[in-house]
Write a structure and sequence with these properties.
The protein is of the alpha+beta class and 362 residues long. The protein is built from 4 helices and 23 strands. The strands form 5 sheets. Strands 3-10-14-13-12-15 form a 6-stranded antiparallel beta barrel.
């Protein structure tokens, strides 16, 4: 039998982009719990669930009658204290000239001064209580602390709410622009990258400013790239991972909180990396192998260790050297130690000669 025809590729070291892939989940850049800050009956919901609101928009109205009564009481107490202050001021104005003429004792003078100062302090305290009552009155109208997308209401109209415990939670607001994507990197992968970087094999982007891309659940890529804005310096002991976060512009609200996505960090590259087409790698009981054509023109199996996949090629971390000729097509027909014929990809064999009898009859 003639030697099988094969096509080969000569392995050459090259700098290869190394995209890092992770599973992530989206979250609002700001997620705020809207809570009641005073007690009362929830009279009315003033927003549409699941719709955008702006900071300061009214969300709920709590029954203001109790707070209004407390405010009126505080204002009345302030007026009483102000009246006491006026009298204490008048008493002091009468006593001080008499004391200067030795018409009253030192005790009377001290009492008049002390009463005036005490009245001043009482007025200040009464004004503070009025301010507190006014704040509680304002809190009966619950407003949005930030701009964002509202969630489902937690308490319906007619419910009794209070500023303590779970009964204070009314709804949540998520700011969707920008949008955060949280993901985690395993400590093994981080250690491998740092080892490669120390060896000069891996080069991160300048300033480690990775470009971040997202693949959505339907396989489509998100329209704009993001940036890495946080990487923790602690390893989570429960999962053995390091938490990271990317930020994406989301002006049209295409991303929603809670989505699962694929995160790709791009910008790093591996130096002097050997690549072979994936179809050149064969699986055996002993592991992965490739066939190379040795200087004698014979097929030689080589056990290899594989790295990451890059498009239709795969990295070879061990088992090959620069300049090796790896069989790409026809490796199934190659036999260890058997000669092979190297042909150019796409070349066809010459047509077979006709038999002598057939040629004579023609």
């Amino acid at each position: 039998m003639p030697p099988p025809e094969v096509t080969v590729v000569t392995v050459k070291p090259a700098d290869v982009p190394l995209p890092l892939e992770y599973v992530g989940q989206t979250a609002g850049s700001r997620e705020v719990e809207v809570r009641a800050r005073v007690s009362g009956i929830l009279l009315k919901r003033l927003y549409a669930e699941g719709r955008p609101v702006k900071a300061g928009d009214a969300l709920y109205q709590i029954d203001p009658e109790q707070a209004k009564a407390a405010l009126d009481q505080a204002r009345g107490a302030l007026e009483v204290e102000q009246a006491k202050l006026i009298r204490a001021k008048q008493d002091q104005a009468r006593i001080l000239p008499l004391f200067a003429e030795n018409a009253v004792s030192q005790k009377d003078r001290d009492e008049a001064v002390a009463n005036f100062e005490s009245a001043q302090a009482s007025v200040a305290a009464a004004r503070a209580r009025v301010r507190e009552a006014q704040i509680n009155m304002d809190y009966t109208r619950v407003t949005a602390p930030i701009s964002g997308m509202t969630s489902k209401e937690v308490r319906s109209e007619g419910s009794l709410v209070s500023p303590s415990g779970d009964s204070s939670l009314l709804t949540k607001i998520s700011q969707l622009n920008p949008m955060y994507v949280n993901f985690s990197m395993s400590d093994n992968e981080l250690l491998r990258l740092r080892t490669w970087q120390a060896q000069g094999r891996y080069v991160p982007p300048e300033g480690e400013r990775y470009s971040v891309e997202l693949k959505l659940s339907d396989g489509a890529m998100f329209s704009s790239a993001g940036r890495l804005n946080f990487t923790d310096n602690l390893i989570d002991p429960t999962s053995g991972t390091i938490r990271s976060r990317a930020e994406f512009a989301n002006p049209d609200g295409a991303l929603l909180p809670g989505q699962f996505v694929r995160v790709y960090l791009k910008g790093g590259k591996l130096k002097d990396t050997l690549l072979v087409p994936q179809r050149a790698v064969l699986s055996t009981q002993q592991g992965k192998i490739v066939f190379v054509v040795n200087p004698a023109g014979k097929a030689e199996p080589r056990p290899v260790e594989l790295g990451d996949e890059v498009k239709n090629e795969v990295m070879i971390t061990k088992g090959l050297r620069a300049g090796d000729q790896v069989i790409v097509d026809g490796n199934i027909k190659a036999r260890p130690g058997a000669p092979v014929k190297v042909v150019t990809p796409g070349a066809s064999a010459p047509p077979a000669a006709k038999p002598a009898s057939a040629a004579a009859g023609a």
